[in-house]
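Lab notebook page, bench 4
Experiment: in silico fold of construct C2
Operator: M.H.
Input chain length: 334 residues
Purpose: comparison with the prior construct
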Amino acid sequence: MHQPEVARLAAFVLALVAAAPVACAGWSAWLAGAFLVEYLTHARPAALSALTDPPDRRPLALPGTDADLYVRAGLEAGRPMVLVHGLAPTGKDDPRVRDAAALLARAGFDVAVPTIPGLTGGRLGPEDVEPVIAALTARDAKTVLVGVSVGAGPALLAAADPRVRDRVSAVLSLGGYASAREVLRFWLTGAYAYEGIQGRAEHDPELVRAFVHANADRLEPASRAILEHADRQALGRLLDAPPPDLQRYLDALSPLRVAPAIGARIFLVHGRADQAVPYTESLRLTAARPDRTTLVLVGLVEHVEGTTERGWREIRDLFALWRVMYALRGASRA
């Protein structure tokens, strides 16, 4: 963002703090606002880092995967959080994942980050919910669960799992999906639609080949051949009536299927111009589980990163995002 935009953001944060209750609530307001300024501006300015000490990063022992724990500096314990990364070849060690976890720790959370094996190789499977469940089990209090991009799938599936459902105080999905079938349709054909809203994005045809290659062992030969060689229209018809093997696979990955079983409060944040996962996926999930679900569609975020959008919407979007961040800090007390 340019300097005038940064000034407006900073002024808005100050206004939020002035309007917030004093003492603890005021400090929470500062942390939530400073987090957003640093996150949305790619640390220009590093508003939160200037206010806080670097967190401590240490290994976290979990069955079946590697994990790290980011612990806030100081004597007061942070609020428990589990961060589920999106597509990241190096998992928890991806620089973007590490930066996000450290910034969340500076905002007052103790952040557990498990590597999701499927998301390191572009082959998400039902088994990838297990590292999230293990991370939730390892926390000693109710926990905020954050899923980023495709990582929102395992996060939401874990939040509905009876083994750990009661351990989750809130779920944040940032640029996540509801239906694996519909997000696959978007990736393979560029088309998205929901309740009269429709559109198309141009995607690299290599996406199809990469998906088929990564998931070849999950698909029967007939499904594999169709996905490899079909055009957009044929791919669309395939996804309208998937073969049984593909249908089972997609159903198992779809939070839409289990959304009503999630007991925690849900926050769905999605960029209106998201070209990786269409915002209609968050609309779809909201409709499936409207109770205690907050939907925030913004222009300040593209997929999972800040944009340079300007105008009156910027202030409205920032206020909506601040309310989510402030609510997450409160939810983790539950």
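Observations: The mean pLDDT is 85. Residues 38 and 45 are 6 Å apart (CA to CA).
Next step: discuss at group meeting.
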